């Protein structure tokens, strides 16, 4: 029986792996469609539009000679323009013979399409599930916050510090920070009078005290700072002993209320989709800065294998997680592809900008040499990062 269950679990996980690959293919398709669409509008000659690398699985040749193909390894893709990697002086239709501003638009459009898709995915996430804010679901009569909090209250901050996922300031972390900063020791005069004494299994005396936790809430469309109550347990010497660390399943212990993720209304989601996406993009830059400065380990990075495994694991845990991953991955791809790293669009954009400024192109052989070496180094780095994810 255990073997059958293991085999069934393996098949299930393979299914989620397949979903993860489809997600990556979708992101690649969106990115390459950006290049393709801009190229078509600006009259560039396109030789092939491919999703994936390696041997061709499917191929269709259009009347204008463009080849649309699906290749064996779904870990990337490309839109091949005429003369993209050549000097192309003899061919007026070659990519490198087009005006610099046109090439910059075409190169930028891949990341731009990823960003547009991230906005759409963000809208769907906020509308269908919500993400960062929490809302009071019920306030039982026995709750310590009965007649203080109300059903429908939207919590967006603690003591005027807003929930902000860019800096990992979620409701749980904000409450924890406030408790650790304000309730390390009992600040009143008489702990015995303030608290409800009880003894543990070692006959040590503790005191349950209701302290004030200021929450920023929105009620009926109006914002206010609400002085809510929170249960804190002090030792007999007045030091913080423990408290019910917040999590969605323990908020009833913290506030005496039940909460859930706040789902944005249609117009709220529409208004917040763009700033929400910009926050994801900024978070990518924050993580990159933390990696450069050593605040984050290299294990925080991941190549395509790690990404597929992460998507599969998160989706298997809760399928709703895919709604979170879609805007995150799309924004990630948009930012990364604009970085001036060999093999990425940002690298090509730098040299096109240099050509535009100096009115003379950098030799294509030099660009290709740097790009090819950079590509090999990037692939090697990605492989090492993936190995480290599973080896350590």
Give a concise summary.
The protein is built from ten helices and ten strands. With 392 residues, the chain is an alpha+beta fold.
Describe the overall structure.
By secondary structure, the chain is of the alpha+beta class. It folds into two domains: 2-129 and 307-391, no CATH class; 134-262, no CATH class. The protein is built from ten helices and ten strands. It has helices at 2-41, 100-128, 171-182, 191-194, 251-254, 266-292, 304-317, 321-337, 345-358, 364-391, and strands at residues 46-61, 67-81, 134-138, 154-158, 161-162, 196-199, 205-219, 222-235, 240-242, 258-261. Helix 1 (2-41) packs across helix 2 and helix 6 crosses helix 8 (321-337). Mean pLDDT is 80; it is low at 1-11.
Number of helices: 10
Quaternary state of the chains? single chain
Overall mean confidence score, pLDDT: 80
User: End-to-end span in angstroms?
Assistant: 32 Å
Largest sheet: 8 strands, antiparallel
Share in helix: 40-55%
Helix-and-strand structural type? alpha+beta
Globular, elongated, flat, extended or rod-shaped: what is the shape? elongated
Helix-strand sequence: HEEHEEEHHEEEEHEHHHHH
Q: Provide the β-strand percentage band.
A: 15-25%
Low confidence ranges: 1-11
Total discrete domains: 2
Rg calculated over all Cα atoms: 27 Å
How many extended strands? 10
